[in-house]
Amino acid sequence: MSELRWSVRTSFFQYLAGLRDGRASVSDGATLTADDPQLVVYPADPDRSDDDVLAFRGDLRLSGHGGLLFVRLANPRIKLRTPAVLSVDDPLTEDGSGPRLDLVTLRLAADDEGGWSGTDVKLTEAGVGLFNHVYAAGDAFDPLIVR
Ligand code: HEM
């Protein structure tokens, strides 16, 4: 297990790209790929992973509307249960010092390439406020891959 590949929700990236001051930036190991502007790659964080949790590191920051819009999706972790739950560091502060947020639930299944695919990815009730209440709880987010 070496990385998490996720485009979060493509329509959100497209919305940001359309803002005059929309920005996506990555640090702490997370990368954006050249061929797919929406895809974020978070490397594995073995020290924080165990039998129940796949942990990744890296920090994605999305901003726009003169700073009114700020979303930090950093150090994602997937709890292996049914459904699985992907959480991120406190997404609203610069240093992520508040409590982690359970962002989406998903169905994880072993794929043909020795990794996992996450489907049926849905926004949690707790995640609704992060996107300004534009999406409802249960709304579809993008599928993800762990490999
Ligand atoms: C100055 C404040 C804001 C204005 C004027 C504004 C305006 C808009 C408009 C016009 C749309 C529709 C865009 C379209 O359909 O093409 C939209 C969508 C959206 N806005 Fe904002 N917004 C503001 C702040 C925020 C903030 C703070 C967030 C928090 C993350 C946010 C999250 C979203 C989301 C998630 C969508 C839906 C994107 C999609 O998936 O299509 N907005 N906003």
Can you describe this structure?
With 147 residues, the chain is mostly beta strands. The protein contains one helix and twelve strands; from the N terminus they run E-H-E-E-E-E-E-E-E-E-E-E-E. The longest helix has 9 residues, at 10-18. The mean pLDDT is 95. A nine-stranded antiparallel β-sheet has the order 3-4-1-12-11-10-9-8-5, with no helix packed on it. It has a three-stranded antiparallel β-sheet with strand order 2-6-7, covered by helices on one side. It has one helix spanning 10-18; strands spanning 3-6, 23-27, 31-32, 40-43, 53-55, 59-64, 69-74, 77-79, 84-88, 101-110, 116-123, 144-146. The protein has one domain (3-137). The structure holds protoporphyrin IX containing FE. Residues 11-12, 15, 65, 68-69, 71, 131-132, 134 line the site of protoporphyrin IX containing FE.
Could you give a quick summary of the protein structure above?
With 147 residues, the chain is mainly beta. It contains one helix and twelve strands; from the N terminus they run βαβββββββββββ. The strands form two sheets. The protein has a nine-stranded antiparallel β-sheet, with no helix packed on it. Strands 2-6-7 form a three-stranded antiparallel β-sheet, covered by helices on one side.
